[in-house]
Amino acid sequence: MTTTHLRTALALAAAGVPVLPLRAGKGPFGNCRACARNACGGRPNMKLAGPCTCPRPCHAWAAATTDPTILRSREWAVAWREAAAAAYHPGGAGLTVVDLDNAEAIAWARASLPATRIVRTTRGEHWLYQGAMQSANAVRPGVDVKSSMQYARWLGPGTGTTTALPDVVRALTVKEPSTVRATAITVPALAGGGECPHRTPSYLDRGIAMAEQRITEARDAVHTTVYRTFLAVMSTHGRCGCLTDAHTARLFTAAQAKGESPRHCADAWTNALTRLGL
After folding, report:
1. pLDDT tens per residue across span 95-153
2. What angle do CA 33, 135, 184 make, to 5 degrees?
């Protein structure tokens, strides 16, 4: 039986928006048989990816999918029947939601943020912008930012036109002048010396820009995409000693904008170095 929430989910998935069923109280369902009722140990209101060892991620934002086969699967059949709402992964759809919980937060947004699509919520408003970024809670009183590695309840398409993610919203999650920790990881020069294969500096810059774009455009499997992109950059540019801290910082910044932590970036970079024997 196709429920109202499942029909909504299928329509969103067809439009490229990753979705999942949501319990009453905004808690997510697992999407595999072992985790359908959180038998793996996940709490019913758990909002992070679960501790289980299923073949695929099955909790919260990590469970969101655009695959209609998964959405209609036996594992989620009960979930959709019991669901209180459909939820979606904003970052996976290339969106950022500024979640305003009260009148004061809404007044701040109207005075400080550029106009965009607005969705009414029970207590306030969701302001939707085109572009993904790092998520963070309580960036201001009554204000959360939901994008990468987060989910939001689907409350309808809203009104207005979705505009580009502004710098003022990105700045809300910045705690320090820079959170990039690339300077602690260096790339060894080519053993025994050697001629640099880069004919012009623009060759390297173009490669870094393409890597940034690949990470930024990732809709799912962000961890894997970041690692493979780091590996590709290192295999092409890592043996001649031309990569600088500035180049590495650009890649780390792109990865962190998709929700990767500085530690995950460092681990992926180190794993790429190890894989290539550098």
Report:
1. 999 999 999 999 999 999 999 999 999 999 999 999 998 888 889 999 999 998 789 99
2. 105
Tell me what pLDDT residue 184 has: 46
Structural contact between residues 128 and 95, judged by C-beta atoms closer than 8 angstroms: yes
Cα torsion 167, 171, 176, 179 to 10°: value is: -60
Q: What does the CA dihedral 267, 275, 255, 55 come to, rounded to 10 degrees? A: -80
Q: CA 272 to CA 236: how far, in whole Å?
A: 12
Over its C-alpha atoms, the chain yields an Rg (Å, rounded) of 21
Using a 10 angstrom Cβ sphere, with 0-12 exposed, 13-18 middle and 19 or more buried, the burial of residue 35 is buried
CA gap 86, 12 in Å, rounded = 10
Give the separation between CA 257 and CA 77, rounded to whole angstroms. 34
| Model pTM score | 0.59
